[in-house]
Write a structure and sequence with these properties.
Nucleotidyltransferase, domain 5; five-stranded mixed sheet; 13 helices; 344 residues; single chain; 4 domains; disordered N terminus; flat; 18 strands; alpha+beta
Length: 344
């Protein structure tokens, strides 16, 4: 016990939002210290070994542009670890970057993970963090972290509903008295939106573009309801019939049409949760509305899209991209809350 306290004095305990798209790390008393894409660039040497070239922003710049011996890997897919080795290397890199040295006293880490992860997937997340240098690892569920980070009254006997739209998963949770009463996780979120745009261009214009281009289109002109002013963007790609490079002009109406399917899937998941919410908690949600968090919440008109269909007020949290990370950090600072909501 004394040794644990002594270690705690010298280590920087961390809260990690290990996202499909971005990894955000917050250190106790220091706030956000890392906010970078969850991408690792590796190079195969003459012996066949994989050496890390870059992690985070520099690695993301290489996506889709690497020669044969270099790969830009996204180790997290659909909210879970797709490549254990690369995830471990990425976490280790970020931990060492925070500590600015390789020899350090191991930190205690709280990691936010999607609701509904299997026991095997939870174990993989914990083991990757332990292998990367943690002395102790706690896992908390994304809907709860999002609700805490959005400033909802999670400890009170009052129902709050949060929809966290990340890169790999959309997490929907009804929170009351410090626990998740109902939760649902679907693997439809930012990445599926990007691919919906990629597929739309392929289908309608025979134009081949990459995921990064799809994401840029989503950010620039993506929308869930018709905007006041019509937008458009010039998209460059390769014509899959002629094989030649081509440019087309894509409108915001077309972008909305491309995003129709993933948005419908999210709406159905939200309705599923509302249908099984206990009446007393449902009354609180009718009164207080629904809060959107995560990068997907920034899609133009998404709050209005949900609100018009379910006939409830829908709000976007302050700094939705950071809601989960902030909630995870707060849990790290409040040991009683951590013990209450962390699961093995």
């Amino acid at each position: 016990m004394i040794l644990d306290k002594l270690i705690g004095m010298f280590s920087s305990d961390m809260a990690i939002d290990l996202g499909t798209a971005n990894t955000i790390i917050m250190v106790k008393t220091r706030g956000i210290v890392i906010n970078e894409p969850s991408v690792v660039a590796v190079q195969r040497d003459t012996m066949g070994r994989m050496n890390i070239l870059a992690v985070g922003k520099k690695a993301k710049e290489m996506v889709g542009k690497t020669p044969g011996n270099i790969m830009a890997v996204r180790p997290m897919r659909d909210g879970v670890i797709a490549d254990f080795d690369m995830t471990e290397r990425m976490i280790r890199y970020f931990i060492e970057k925070v500590h600015k040295r390789k020899a350090f006293i191991r930190p205690r880490i709280v990691i936010c993970v999607p609701y509904g992860l299997t026991q095997v997937e939870r174990k993989a997340v914990k083991e990757s963090a332990m292998s990367a240098g943690a002395r102790e690892v706690f896992l908390i569920e994304e809907p709860m972290a999002a609700a805490i980070g959005a400033g909802l009254p999670v400890k009170e006997p009052k129902g709050s509903l949060v929809v966290d739209i990340g890169g790999g998963t959309t997490e929907i949770g009804v929170v009351s008295l410090g626990g998740l009463v109902i939760s649902k996780s679907i693997r439809v979120a930012g990445d599926k939106m990007d691919m919906a745009i990629v597929d739309y261009l392929k289908r309608k214009y025979n134009l081949l573009i990459g995921e990064r281009a799809g994401e840029e289109i989503k950010i620039e002109i993506g929308n869930a309801v018709p905007p006041k002013e019509k937008l458009s963007i010039f998209v460059k790609g390769r014509d899959q019939i002629s094989g030649l490079l081509s440019t087309i002009e894509l409108t915001s109406d077309e972008a909305r049409e491309a995003l129709e399917e993933p948005l419908k899937d999210m709406m159905h998941a939200l309705k599923d949760v509302l249908e099984i919410t206990p009446p007393d908690l449902a009354a609180d949600i009718v009164e207080n509305g629904i809060v959107l968090t995560g990068g997907g919440a920034l899609l133009k008109g998404l709050d209005k899209y949900f609100s018009e269909d379910i006939k409830l007020p829908v709000y976007i949290a302050d700094e939705p991209l950071l809601a989960v990370a902030k909630g995870t950090e707060r849990v790290l600072e409040e040991i009683e809350l951590l013990q209450q909501i962390a699961y093995d």
